[in-house]
């Protein structure tokens, strides 16, 4: 079946896209989804007259304030997956959601380190074409960050229309990998839009958090060789070969041959995987690749689609080839300017960068490389700030935190590219500490 709808079908669908079901799912779906595993609200959020983005929202289970009197103070987090074109339900069911699919048994297990413990979390299949967000036509898939940012703002406006109290709640955009572009572009767009909108239409954006992000490729592509060499994964001869590929990638970027630059960068990752023998360059400490088929099979069952309020006619894929192809020219473009716009905004928007140490794609060295190029008056103070050892409440090492002004950087031990899922206790402590400004994010040495 084609993943695209006819225009007529799309218009008909939009009559019901703002699904806010509160009734119980069919009994068979309940077997797969315990009550607490099913979203609080779910469905589709209008972004254009013919298209919508799928979302699943989970309200906080143990909020920082007591509803209903202070419900407007409970933060909302938006989670966006990378790719480009990967579904945010990966984050939901493999990393930080309330229930996770941890093996091939198709049984959901409760996640004690869920991000919706203190906050409401909105998983959005973004951009259009990813996950359950099927476009009306293939031509509707975005080809640039500007369009994606506009779609995300439209989706957030649709979400906030579901319940007036949502608009007052502090909002944080979070995600990983290619969301290192989605997030700053969307944040910059929201801030620009807020300046022109009436108070009752503004988005209460308070911060952005990017995990192992691809944000400024021209700087990040220069450190693949160093990351692998100083981790002991390659020797000097292999390092020199990677550096040659890096130089070719840089030359292609500067010549604006971005699709070719993307292919060359992909060859770097493939070369590193081959010569190192690691199971996955996303986390070179893993003994096996990340499982992918169980979640695909699970989310394509009728029971799962019914429980999630997803369209039954859409086949869920982890990552969309169509979206990846549409954004071929976008991959090697920079979003550094959007990060700078966020840091310079008069609204004092906070920025958190976090990385797992075992990532050969966009690890700590990769992020530091582009952060050093920020055009931001606070950069000197940030680079001079202490890199503090960060431990959990039980004394376990979680990683390292460096912060100054609006910018914080957290390095998570025992984790790779999907840091939020690789070290869930540390990731939960990090997001709660950063949002609430406690633990290492207020200057003390521990976090709960």
CATH superfamily membership, which one? Alpha/Beta hydrolase fold, catalytic domain
Strand-residue proportion: 15-25%
CATH architecture: 3-Layer(aba) Sandwich
How many strands, which pairing sense, and closed or not: the largest β-sheet? Answer: 11 strands, mixed
Structural class: alpha/beta
Mean pLDDT: 89
Q: Percentage of helical residues? A: 25-40%
Number of strands: 13
Anisotropy-based shape: globular
Structural domains: how many: 1
Order of helices and strands: HHEEEHEEEHEHEHHHHHHHHEHHEEEHHE
Instruction: Order the strands across the largest sheet as they lie in space.
Output: 1-2-6-3-7-8-9-12-11-10-13
Organism: Oryza punctata (Red rice)
GO molecular function, one term: serine-type carboxypeptidase activity
EC number: 3.4.16.-
Keywords: Carboxypeptidase, Hydrolase, Protease, Signal
Question: How is the topology of this model organized?
Answer:
Elements: H1 7-13, H2 27-32, E1 41-46, E2 52-58, E3 76-80, H3 89-96, E4 99-101, E5 108-110, E6 120-124, H4 145-160, E7 171-176, H5 179-194, E8 205-211, H6 217-220, H7 224-230, H8 236-254, H9 258-276, H10 293-299, H11 302-308, H12 321-326, H13 336-344, E9 350-356, H14 364-371, H15 379-384, E10 387-392, E11 397-404, E12 407-412, H16 419-422, H17 424-436, E13 446-447
Parallel strand pairs: 3-6, 3-7, 7-8, 8-9, 9-12, 10-13
Antiparallel strand pairs: 1-2, 2-6, 4-5, 10-11, 11-12
Helix pairs in contact: 4-5, 5-13, 7-8, 8-9
Family: Belongs to the peptidase S10 family.
Signal peptide: 1-29
Enzyme class: hydrolase
């Amino acid at each position: 079946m084609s993943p695209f709808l006819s225009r007529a079908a799309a218009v008909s669908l939009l009559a019901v896209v703002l699904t806010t079901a509160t009734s119980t799912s069919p009994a068979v779906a309940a077997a797969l989804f315990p009550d607490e595993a099913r979203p609080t609200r779910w469905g589709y959020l209008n972004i254009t007259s013919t298209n919508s983005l799928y979302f699943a929202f989970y309200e906080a289970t143990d909020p920082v304030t007591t509803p209903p009197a202070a419900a407007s103070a409970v933060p909302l987090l938006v989670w966006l997956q990378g790719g480009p074109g990967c579904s945010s339900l990966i984050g939901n069911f493999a990393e930080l959601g309330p229930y996770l699919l941890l093996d091939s048994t198709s049984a959901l297990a409760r996640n004690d380190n869920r991000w919706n413990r203190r906050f409401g979390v909105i998983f959005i299949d973004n951009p259009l074409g990813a996950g359950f967000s099927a476009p009306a036509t293939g031509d509707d898939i975005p080809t640039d960050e500007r369009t994606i940012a506009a779609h995300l703002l439209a989706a957030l406006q649709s979400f906030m229309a579901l319940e007036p109290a949502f608009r007052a709640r502090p909002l944080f955009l979070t995600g990983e990998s290619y969301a290192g572009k989605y997030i700053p572009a969307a944040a910059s767009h929201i801030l620009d839009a807020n300046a022109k909108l009436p108070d009752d239409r503004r988005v209460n954006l308070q911060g952005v958090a990017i995990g192992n992000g691809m944000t400024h490729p021209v700087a990040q592509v220069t450190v693949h060789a160093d990351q692998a060499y100083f981790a002991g994964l390659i020797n000097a001869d292999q390092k020199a070969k990677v550096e040659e590929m890096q130089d070719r990638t840089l030359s292609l970027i500067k010549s604006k041959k971005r699709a070719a630059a993307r292919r060359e960068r992909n060859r770097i990752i493939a070369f590193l995987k081959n010569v190192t023998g690691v199971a996955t360059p996303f986390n070179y400490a893993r003994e096996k690749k990340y499982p992918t088929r169980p979640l695909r099979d699970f989310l394509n069952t009728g029971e799962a689609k019914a429980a999630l309020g997803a369209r039954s006619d859409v086949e869920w894929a982890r990552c969309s080839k169509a979206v990846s192809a549409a954004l071929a020219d976008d991959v090697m473009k920079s979003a550094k300017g959007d990060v700078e716009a966020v840091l310079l905004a008069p609204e004092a928007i906070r920025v958190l960068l976090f990385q797992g140490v075992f990532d050969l794609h966009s690890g700590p060295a990769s992020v530091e490389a582009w952060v050093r190029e920020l055009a931001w008056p606070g950069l000197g103070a940030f680079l001079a700030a202490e890199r503090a050892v960060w431990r959990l409440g039980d004394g376990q090492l979680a990683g390292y935190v460096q912060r100054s002004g609006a910018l914080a950087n957290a390095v998570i031990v025992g984790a790779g590219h999907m840091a939020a899922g690789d070290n869930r206790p540390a990731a939960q402590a990090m997001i709660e500490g950063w949002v609430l400004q406690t633990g290492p994010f207020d200057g003390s040495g521990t976090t709960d």
